[in-house]
Design brief:
The complex is a heterodimer of chains A (219) and B (91).
Chain A lengths: L1 H50 L4 H40 L6 H52 L9 H56 L1
Chain B lengths: L6 H11 L4 E2 H7 L4 H13 L3 E6 L2 E6 L3 H18 L6
Antiparallel strand pairs in B: 1-3, 2-3
Classes of the chains: A mainly alpha (219), B alpha+beta (91).
């Protein structure tokens, strides 16, 4: 029995750790989305002010930047709520010393169930926000590529183009955008997997209630 | 223990907390219940014979009865099986 509880506790701990990492990544992505969004807006506005014209690409850049900043802000708010609850349970789990008792593990499972019941909407929202955030970052990457090509083929009058000077910062910006975009899409998959596991557990727990009801009635 | 819990989860929390005699205030604090709801839960469990009240002077403490062990055991078995039956989330 102790060995079974030990395995159960380890599985629980592993799952808790995995979700903690996803929540933490989600917070970081949210902050990055907001920061990059604002940076895109500022860069585009400065470029438009410098040239004195309203170009199509800078306008697209401003719109995408604004979308990224708004999504980033919502992202942080949703992640913070989920993160707080998971972190509290994780701290209590880590504080358990010696062999974990049957009751301690059951108590943590009950807390995770309650946490999911309270946050299931936020978890599904995170899934959508992560997809949206991923799409925005990938779009920003594409805009960067188009901008680089545009710059190469239509340089400013008198500008002498030097390929590495354009290519290195461009590749760096595109790599960051695409990496965050892909990781964000991946995190939406993780949120979905987590939600699916807990939805199934909730259904199963609902069915168990009949057994508990009978046990109570017999009492 | 905040969050949305089912009544059965709250029964289990109260019963396991009352393995040693506990005051009403300690129970509602630990189980995160308001006094009205807390009293209803304690009355229900006492009616079922799962909890008994012991008076010490003007203080009343609640303690679990041997009859509750079956419910506590069934609850733990059912909830732990959720992790055995359903594949967990892992990165």
């Amino acid at each position: 029995m102790t060995e079974t509880i030990g395995t159960l506790s380890e599985n629980f701990g592993r799952e808790l750790r995995s979700f903690f990492v996803v929540c933490l990544l989600s917070l970081v992505f949210g902050a990055l989305a907001m920061a990059f969004g604002l940076q895109f807006i500022v860069t585009a506005v400065v470029a438009m002010a410098g040239s004195g014209t309203l170009g199509l690409l800078p306008l697209v850049q401003v719109l995408l930047g604004w979308a990224a900043a708004v999504v980033g802000f919502r992202w942080i708010l949703s992640s913070a709520g989920i993160f707080r609850g998971v972190n509290r349970i994780r701290k209590d789990y880590r504080a358990m010393e010696g062999p974990v008792t049957d009751e301690a593990v059951t108590g943590l499972i009950v807390r995770m169930m309650a946490h999911y019941r309270e946050n299931w909407k936020a978890v599904w929202r995170m899934n959508l926000v992560a997809i949206l955030g991923g799409a925005i970052f990938i779009a920003l990457g594409v805009v960067n590529i188009v901008q680089g090509i545009w710059h190469w083929y239509s340089p400013s009058p008198g500008e002498i183009l030097y390929l590495p000077a354009i290519l290195i910062p461009l590749l760096f910006a595109v790599a960051i955008d695409l990496a965050i975009g892909i990781l964000s899409l991946l995190s939406s998959v993780w949120f979905r997997r987590y939600a699916r596991a807990w939805e199934l557990r909730l259904v199963e727990a609902g069915q168990s209630e009949e057994t508990l009801k009978k046990s109570m009635e017999q009492g | 223990m905040a969050g949305r819990r089912t009544p059965y989860e709250i029964y289990w929390e109260i019963l396991t907390f009352c393995r040693t005699p506990r005051s009403f205030t300690a129970i509602i604090n630990r189980c995160d219940l308001n006094s009205k709801i807390g009293q209803e839960y304690l009355d229900f469990l006492a009616t079922k014979g799962y909890l008994s009240a012991a008076k010490e002077g003007d203080r009343t403490s609640w303690v679990v009865t041997p009859k509750a062990e079956e419910y506590i055991g069934t609850f733990a078995r059912l909830y732990q099986s959720l992790f055995d039956k359903i594949p967990g989330f892992r990165l």
